């Protein structure tokens, strides 16, 4: 008997009603437990990633999800992954907003400064609408990082590519 | 009657007719126009050019469906002047009708609430923004230059903070709560 394993499943392609219902029905039929997941539309393209665990093989999951791909406009990928405990950094959490006129290299220019400061991006979305390019990221800075210096470096990098950047501390209301 | 109450009554009774001229409808600029990222200068509220802009802001707000406020940056001018009118909005509690404020500053802000905001200058997105729901602010009326200090709450407080941000060169996008707090707009007013 196969022991329980953790799998990453990605589904990507043309959006239509029922994709999530079909995908999760296939996984439930195998007795898989869905853990963390995220789904969004990227300029109308369906994009879903999820982690699920169960005592099955990758082939079992691919077979269960095969009906999704029959139309030829959805791709499904399954691969085993190891459990990754979320590290506690002891640092600080920030929200970074960048916006301005669209051009290549905005994301690269800005996140380079985050990486240079030892920062770790934990969530990121970008949107393009007309000429407006928008990036919003959540990131952790290591304990002891000079957030003012990081913010200034990010602003300077943003200015170089003609956009503006705002770095704000995450406000969490513990109740 | 305390001074703040008197100011509140003064603001509530203010109308654009006091400006003595007909406002023109101006074009509203959209992001990524650089003026939207430019902090405004403090202005002389009695100067003719700003009285003219006050009238134009109100006129432009009036003809824009769903618009409850408009700042100078949104019509291409980096200056600390904006208009507001939330009186017809269902989320408004306290409100002071239509008014224009110059050089506004927050005196007190408390009781943060998160809500979804839109903006005429960012027509394709809305965003979840945390703002104070109790606000005391001070500013000057265009034309007379009277200094008024008012207390407000709920939606008028949110609208005022949104417009004051414009005057500082900030959009609601700069204050969204996180990576998943920006949403494509589903309906356009």
From TrEMBL, chain A:
InterPro entries assigned: ACT-like_dom_sf, ACT_dom, UPF0237/GcvR_regulator
UniProt domain ACT: residue ranges: 8-83, 95-172
PROSITE patterns: ACT
Name recorded for this polypeptide: Amino acid-binding protein
Organism: Nocardioides immobilis
Source species taxonomy: Bacteria, Bacillati, Actinomycetota, Actinomycetes, Propionibacteriales
């Amino acid at each position: 008997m196969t022991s329980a394993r953790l799998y990453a499943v990605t589904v990507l392609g043309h959006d239509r009603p029922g994709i999530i219902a079909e995908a999760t029905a296939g996984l439930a039929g195998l007795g898989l437990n869905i853990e963390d997941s995220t789904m969004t539309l990227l300029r109308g393209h369906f994009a879903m990633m999820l982690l699920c665990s169960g005592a099955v093989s990758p082939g079992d999951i691919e077979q269960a999800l095969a009906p999704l791909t029959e139309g030829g406009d959805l791709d499904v990928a399954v691969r085993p992954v190891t459990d990754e405990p979320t590290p506690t950094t002891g640092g600080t959490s920030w929200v970074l907003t960048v916006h301005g006129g669209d051009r290549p290299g905005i994301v690269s220019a800005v996140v380079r400064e985050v990486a240079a400061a030892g920062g770790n991006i934990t969530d990121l979305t970008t949107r393009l609408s007309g000429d407006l390019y928008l990036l919003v990221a959540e990131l952790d800075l290591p304990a002891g990082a000079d957030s003012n210096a990081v913010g200034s470096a990010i602003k300077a990098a943003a200015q170089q590519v003609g956009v503006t950047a705002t770095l704000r501390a995450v406000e969490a209301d513990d109740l | 009657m305390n001074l703040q109450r008197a100011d509140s009554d003064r603001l509530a009774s203010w109308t654009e007719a006091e400006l003595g001229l007909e406002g023109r409808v101006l074009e509203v600029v959209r992001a990524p126009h650089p003026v939207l990222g430019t902090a405004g200068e403090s202005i002389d509220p009695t100067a003719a050019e700003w009285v003219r802009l006050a009238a134009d802001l109100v006129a432009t707000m009036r003809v824009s469906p769903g618009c409850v406020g408009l700042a100078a940056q949104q019509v291409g001018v980096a200056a600390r002047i904006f208009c507001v009118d939330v009186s017809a909005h269902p989320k408004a509690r306290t409100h002071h009708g239509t008014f224009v404020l110059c050089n506004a500053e927050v005196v007190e802000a408390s009781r943060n609430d998160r809500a979804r905001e839109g903006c005429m200058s960012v027509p394709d997105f809305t965003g979840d923004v945390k703002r104070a729901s109790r606000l005391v602010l001070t500013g000057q009326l265009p034309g007379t230059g009277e200094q008024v200090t008012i207390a407000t709450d709920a939606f008028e407080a949110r609208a005022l903070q949104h417009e004051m941000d414009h005057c500082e060169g900030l959009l609601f996008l700069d204050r969204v709560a996180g990576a998943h707090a920006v949403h494509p707009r589903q309906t356009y007013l």
